Amino acid sequence: MSKLGIFVNRQTLSSSEQLSALIKCRDVAESMGHTAEFIFPVDIKKIPKLDALFIRANTDPMNATYVAARMASLYGVPVIDDPLSIQICSDKVNMYMHLMKRELPMPRTVFPSKEKISADYARELFEEMGSPLVLKEPSTSFSARVEKASTVPEFMRIAKRFLRLSDWVVVQQYIPSRFDWRIGVLNGEFLYACRYVIPSQTFKIQASVNGHLVYCGVESVPPEEVPSEIIDLGIEAGRAIGSGLYGVDIKERDGRLYVIEVNDNPSLDGGEDVHYPDVYHRIISFLISGDSHMDTRSYIPSRIYSPFQSSRYNASTDLVPEGARMLVGEEISSCWIDFER
User: Fold this and answer.
1) What is the reported pLDDT for 99?
2) pLDDT value at position 315?
3) Range(s) for CATH 3.30.470.20 in the chain?
4) How far is CA 230 from the centre of its chain?
5) pLDDT tens-digit series, residues 13-65
6) Taking the model in full, what pTM does it have?
7) Are 132 and 151 within 8 A, CB to CB?
8) Residue 225: how many CB atoms within 10 A of its CB?
């Protein structure tokens, strides 16, 4: 019998959905013959005595979740999320660089610095990537500090606000869609799939509209109804980050696939696992024993996705400026990086 710690904080327990998911996780662990204990930030000293730690609170290198992950790692306690995954996914520049190194299809993306931002530069981006553009502050999560700009003055206003928090701004080509695919990946294997249906009032999965929070709808999708290309791309994007637990957001537009981002610590309290009843069993098995294999009812990908294997889903290379090639190789998928200061 092993002892599992489930790291939580007050925010984690702020909704009935989150509390139900936590209780479900605890119950699954106990049904597997383990003990499970909720660990709050004040209990962090208990971590070295655990056999595994599952973090179920917002992860960020600047808060207690990262301290918990680092402590577990230092004491040899298996942990999700691991410190490196938190570092990568909490910084979108870092995260997108990992995807670019794997040549995965993405919206065209640049990371202009404070010195680079100007009205002339904004006009160049609109000419190169179209309108509107999506601007992101690199440490954003839950769609906060993600905004669209359709004009140069709007771009400058948003960029200057984000630059108060970061030395860089992420600027991306806008990919319109009715929903995002969310592919759960555990230890480089397919875990679950769902659709996040984007509210009609916004382009994000979560937004404040007229002072009220608007959330996306969640539709769990059985594995046989998920296109294999979506699953394969999700797996490859997760592997680009590490071997932990990730939620990969993918858009499909005009026959092309685009990785929007990879999230560590993905949500499991919105119904993402409806068609995947073994999700917590697999996570706990991986933490306790290192075994994350699927059961016979689960989808097994037929191949590893490569954006250059399928003409339908090939990323366009003729849209990428020459400067990107120095950073991510000779064959470039639809992304564009610029670190010029």
Assistant:
1) 97
2) 35
3) 91-107+175-341
4) 15
5) 877 888 999 999 999 999 999 999 999 999 999 999 999 999 999 888 888 99
6) 0.82
7) no
8) 8
Residue 145: CB atoms within 10 A of its CB come to: 19
Write down the residue that tokens 């990428």 correspond to: 320
- Determine the pLDDT at residue 198: 80
Intervals of CATH 3.40.50.20 along the chain: 3-80
- What topology is assigned to 3-80 in CATH? Rossmann fold (3.40.50)
What is the C-alpha separation between 44 and 67, in angstroms, rounded?
A: 9
Averaged pLDDT of the chain: 83
Q: What is the dihedral sign for C-alpha 278, 58, 27, 16?
A: negative
> Under CATH, which number does the domain 91-107+175-341 receive?
3.30.470.20
